[in-house]
Amino acid sequence: MRLKQLHIKGFKSFAYDTVIHFNEDVIGIVGPNGSGKSNIVDAIRWVLGEQKSKELRLEQMADVIFNGTKNRKEAPSATVELIFDNDRGLLPTEYQTVNISRTLYRSGDSEYRLNDVVCRLKDIKSLLVDTGIGSNSYAIISLGMVDDLLYDKDDSRRYMFEQAAGVSKYKSRKKETLQKLNSTSADLDRVSDLLFEIEGNMKTLEKQAKRTRKYFELKDEYKTLAVQNAVRSMQNLKERYKKAGQDITEKQDAYSAINTEVIAKEAKLEAEKKQNLEQELNVGQQQKELNELVAKLRNLENDKNLLTQKISFKKQSLTNADAVLTESKVSLDLLSEELKRLDRLILEEKEVEATLSVKLSEKQQALADARAIQGSAKNEFESKTKHIQELQKQLFDIDKDIAVTSNHISTLKSENQRTSEEIRTHKDEHSLFDQDLAELTGKFQIASDEITSLKEKENQRKQQIAEAEQLRDKMAEELGKVNRTLDARQNEYDLLKSMIENFEGFPESLKFLSSQWRKDVPVLSDLLDVQEEYKSVIEQYLEPYLTYFVVNDVNEAGEAIRLLGGAQKGKANFFLLNRIEFQQGTKLSIPLAKPAIECVKVEAKYEPLLSYLLRDAYIFDGSLDDFKYDREYDGLNFLSKSGSFLKTRFTISGGSVGLFEGKKIGRKKNLEKLETFIRESEEQKVKLSSELDKTRNLVVQLKGSDRSLELEHMLADLQKIEQEKTRLFVSLENLAQKIKDGETKIVRNRQQIEELEEKQRTFEVDKISLKRGLEEEEQNIRSNNSDLDQLTDRLNKASEAFNDANIEVIRQQNLLTNHLKDLEFKQSRQHEISERIKSETSRKEADIVELEQAENHKIALENELLLVYNEKNTFQSALNANEQNYFSARNIISTLEEEIRVLNRGLNQHQVEINQLKDHYQEIKFQINAIGDRIYIEFNVSIDEVMNQEVNTEIADEDLAQKVEQIRHRLNNYGEINPMAMEAYEEIKSRYDVITVQRNDILAAKESLLQTIKEIESTATSQFMQAFEEIRSNFINVFRSLFTEDDNCDLILMEPDNPLESSIEIVAKPKGKKPKSLSQLSGGEKTLTATALLFALYLLKPAPFCIFDEVDAPLDDANIQKFNRIIQKFSERSQFIIVTHNKSTMAAVDVLYGVYMQEMGISALTPVDFRDLKDDPVLAAASA
After folding, report:
1. How far apart are CA 988 and CA 235, in angstroms?
2. What pLDDT does residue 927 have?
3. Is the pLDDT of residue 228 over 60?
4. Contacts by 619-622, CB closer than 8 A, 24 or more apart
5. End-to-end alpha-carbon separation of the chain, Å?
6. Nearest-CA neighbor of 10 among 124, 89, 102?
7. Can you tell me the distance from the alpha carbon of 1015 to that of 1000, in angstroms, rounded to the nearest whole number?
8. Beta strands 617-620 and 637-640: pairing type?
9. How far is residue 128's CA from residue 134's CA, in Å, rounded to a whole number?
10. Which residues of 535-553 are buried (b: 16+ CB within 10 A; e: fewer)?
11. Taking a C-beta distance cutoff of 8 angstroms, is the pair 286, 879 a contact?
12. Which of helix, strand or coil describes residue 595?
């Protein structure tokens, strides 16, 4: 698989339609700073799904769209398209060419396309999973990412290991399974809470249902006799209602069955995925082996090409050897002729030398005679002149000393002048360095303050993140509590409201008046607001009066009584407020007791009525044994706080407390309180939800404002400033020392000058004295000098003749010597040429042998290539078959996923139909209620009973009326019941059974998910550890190839017991260094270490292409050559796209793309392939 083409339009600085072809193994991208080189890398990241604008060096994602220039309008959209050649089938698709594109419009809309079909980012990531390609994979490396990799920022190191090991898909599947597990656990908790709540309610409802059942048995008889006419009109509705209920039950059963099938298929899907992993690994292994065969073929092809070049070179070498031999033989013939000429010339010159030697002997004898005559006269003269010569010598020595001293003084003065100039220069440099140091100190302080401030901000940000996350979790927990409380209170409110609206537990007369009379007239039980702990005792005490209407006067009461009388609906009792005066009860201090009126609240206008009812009542907080009667208590009524006894003056009553005692009193007040509580809870829920959303957004915002990378860059800049300061300090110290040494030197030279000047003055005095003595001696010898001059003149002439003859002899000897040396050189040259001819002949014979061997080796390589090609084709066929099986298994998984999607859609459809049926069910119920309300007011018959009533025509009308009256009387005296208890019990029992089954299903699903997670972790751990060991071995080998064989390095798992979550430590120790951490390595060493790790990953799982964005910037010339060699080596497996400024890297790539600004703000490209121009004469001349 190869990256074939990149198409950019409207992206950042690439305003025009730009296409880059990636047809070679190593592609270089060069250009000046700011020209847009890195925008090409950003484009590749972006089209592969990069979502963080920070990673693209942007403030916001919309900034990727070309923003326009002075001469060109802004672009309406940004589009980037990548084209891959899927020739090896690395991507799981049947297409040989795969196009991935991404477009962002200024409106904010965006789209991804896969082979020109609109798709999701998730689809692209699924296609590229475990291929080594991605926006944040190890296939795209920038210089900043080298530090991220070395310092393991955001676990980037372990993320790359997971990609290379191929366990990313396992972690993704584990994450999906954990999400399902969490959802399942939440469902299990919810179901458990429901079961716990239902179990508590079932026990209560069971007791209520038994008593209610007896009541309804009596009421069924009454209903049978009293509502036959109504039943006839409701038969049709009853059938419809019953059918609707059955339809709902059937739909709910079908929903549960589909849900169970979904869970089973999901479990089967996970099993299929696990089984498919093994096939996927086999296909991956076979692909790896096929890649090795392809690499072997490339190596054999390279060897064949090298042999072809060697054969060509050897043939050229033989041709050159022939030319050299021919040239050498010609030179040897010329030298032989020249040697013969020199032999003749030397013989002639020796004869001339012999003649000159005879003449020289004659001249020498004449010179000896002249010297003997002149010697006697000279001895006398010399004795006189010797003293003069001594005086002259002394005078010469003094002149010499004066000249030397004068020269020394001038030298010292010049040296002082030069040293003074140097001191001034050093002082000027010192002043400039002082200014630079002051400026650097200021920059250092500013940078230190900025770093300190940034560190504080980062610490504050991290603290804010921790606090915000803690607050978020706390608020989420609080919101959950509010939701649970709100649900419970809402259910309680709905039940209580239903009981109030239907006057459950009240006589028929009250029900009649509440519906046919005035809605605004309350009964006593609705007026009382009693503290919870006293409700049962107050209700027990006021039981006879709780159903009394409270009216203003007798007229209102009379109106109601007349209405009851006319309708034959029984009797009702009334309190007349205008007849009741406030009554002050007896107030006594009684141990363990307090007035009952203090436990009850009513509106102000009802206080007289309350004082009348509770004027002598006290609540006793103790048992009957604790109560001590006193005559002072006559006329008082004592109520047990627990409701277990009631003590009046002459009576006492007590026993057990009923389950529903205290439930009738204050219903409306409780309903108002519940309504207030629900409203406040809803407001609290909305407020909490809003605050939780704000807190979550704050956490995301805080995490998105990470400035740690900026801090690292600032620390690096600060370190550079500090290094510059150190350099300036050293320079200043050196300059100060030079200035000090110069000033010391000047002082020392001045002292020497003074000493020398004093010495020179002494020499001048001695010189004058010597001159006087010399003049006197010369005057005495001048008179005897005339005869000696004549003899000396004769001697000089003889000496001159001898010297001329001697010179002629010497000149002749020199000429002869030159001829002999020339002869010797020519003989040496003749010997060298002879040896060269022998050497060239031997080398020619060896080249002929090597040429024959190379041609034979080439034939063997061609045969081996043919065999390897056949093996590759066979292996390719087997791989295609295995891939077909693998894709067949993938089709099964896709089919299961599609079936699950269909079932989920069926679930949603069933849920919609259930809701619609429930609405229809409620509509029928409403119609029945409309009839039932009338029957209920007239006959006190519930809706459920009417629906199941059968008509009885055998009873006579009179007997029926008498029997109805008797049964009605019994019903009125039956007491309070809970009419919903039976239905509620059956419903809750059925619900309990269904939920129990659901819980068992959920438990089974949870166990299956846990087993799946365990299997995924086991497989992923095994695969990761195997990959880690291979990467570790590769890292050591590549590291030593980049450094030396004696260098040490290693990869260490910090938590070997938990490898999937463990951090990975890099140990790198170049020879001669013992760094405690990677930060102590140089920039080049860090880059080479990161390069070694990256290529160790590539060796395990080569990415189809790799992009280096100025990664080679920190490397020196020696290390850049190592970097380029390893790039060339790995280019046999992957494509490399290198953004660089380094000339050596530029020279090493196959093709260069130059990025430049054709106009300000707009980038353009031009390709250059130097391999096509290697024979160009202009380039050849430039290279020479």
Report:
1. 27
2. 64
3. no
4. 619/534, 619/537, 619/593, 619/594, 619/595, 620/590, 620/592, 620/593, 620/647, 621/592, 621/593, 621/594, 622/592
5. 40
6. 102
7. 23
8. parallel
9. 7
10. bbbbbbbbeeebbbbbbee
11. yes
12. strand
Q: Can you list the positions of beta strands (E) in 998-1060?
A: 1048-1053
Cβ–Cβ under 8 Å, residues 454 and 710: yes
71 phi, psi to nearest 5 deg: -110, 0
How many C-beta atoms surround the C-beta of residue 626 within 10 A?
11
| Of 1134, 445, 375, nearest in space to 795 by CA | 375
- Other C-beta atoms lying within 10 Å of the C-beta of residue 908: 10
Cβ(211)–Cβ(881) under 8 Å?
A: no
Helix (H, G, I), strand (E, B) or coil at 1047: coil
The torsion region of residue 262 among left (phi > 0), alpha (psi -120 to 50) and beta comes to alpha
d(CA 976, CA 504): 9
Alpha-carbon dihedral 805, 809, 814, 819, rounded to 10 degrees: 140
In this predicted structure, what is the pLDDT of residue 1181?
42
Among 362, 346, 354, 353, which Cα is nearest to 812's? 353
Q: What is the mean pLDDT of residues 498-509?
A: 68
Q: Are 360 and 802 in contact (CB under 8 A)?
A: yes
Which segments within 63-166 are labelled E, that is strand?
A: 77-85, 97-105, 110-114, 117-119, 140-142
- The H or E element containing residue 1168 is strand 1162-1168
Measured distance CA(478)–CA(469) in Å, rounded: 14
The tokens describing 886, both together, are 């693998």
Interstrand relation of 637-640 and 574-576 (parallel, antiparallel or unpaired) = unpaired
Work out the burial of residue 596: count CB atoms within 10 Å of its CB; fewer than 13 is exposed, 13-18 middle, 19 or more buried. buried
**CB atoms near residue 915 (< 10 Å):** 12
pLDDT of residue 7: 92
Give just the sign of the alpha carbon dihedral 219, 224, 226, 227: positive
Average pLDDT, the chain: 76
Which tokens sit at 239? 């059938």
Nearest CA to 143 out of 1090, 1105, 930 is that of: 1090
Q: How far apart are CA 912 and CA 43, in angstroms?
A: 46
Cα distance between residue 62 and residue 53, in whole Å: 9
Contacts of 164 (CB under 8 A, 6+ apart): 132, 138, 1027, 1031, 1097, 1100, 1101
Q: How far apart are CA 1024 and CA 1039, in angstroms?
A: 21
Q: Name the nearest CA neighbour of 149 among 1134, 1091, 827.
A: 1091
* Residue 41 identity (one-letter amino acid): V
- Angle (CA) 1089-47-40 rounded to 5° is 60
Q: How many Cα atoms occupy the beta-carbon half-sphere of 834 within 13 Å? A: 9
| Residue 263: pLDDT band with limits 50, 70, 90 | confident
**Alpha carbons 121 and 772: distance in angstroms, whole number:** 117
Comparing 43 with 160, the larger pLDDT belongs to: 43
> Which of these ranges, 253-267, 939-953, 1121-1135, has the smallest mean pLDDT?
939-953
114: tokens are 């896969």
If you average pLDDT over residues 108-131, what whole number do you get? 85
Q: How many CA atoms lie within 13 A of 1043 on its CB side?
A: 25
pTM (predicted TM-score):
0.36
Comparing CA positions, the residue from 345, 343, 338 lying closest to residue 833 is: 338
How far is residue 21's CA from residue 5's CA, in Å, rounded to a whole number? 5
| 1039 exposure class (CB count in 10 Å sphere: 0-12, 13-18, 19+) | buried
Give the bridge partners for 1140, in sequence order. Answer: none
Structural element, H or E, at residue 800? helix 786-939
Q: Which helix (H) or strand (E) holds 1105?
A: strand 1105-1109
Give Cα 139 distance to the centre of its chain: 14
Instruction: Give me the residues paired with residue 21 across strands.
Output: 5
pLDDT band at residue 939 under the 50/70/90 scheme: low
Q: Which two tokens stand for residue 863?
A: 């045969």
Per-residue pLDDT tens for 106-118?
Answer: 888 889 999 888 9
Does residue 227 contact residue 937 with C-beta atoms inside 8 Å? no
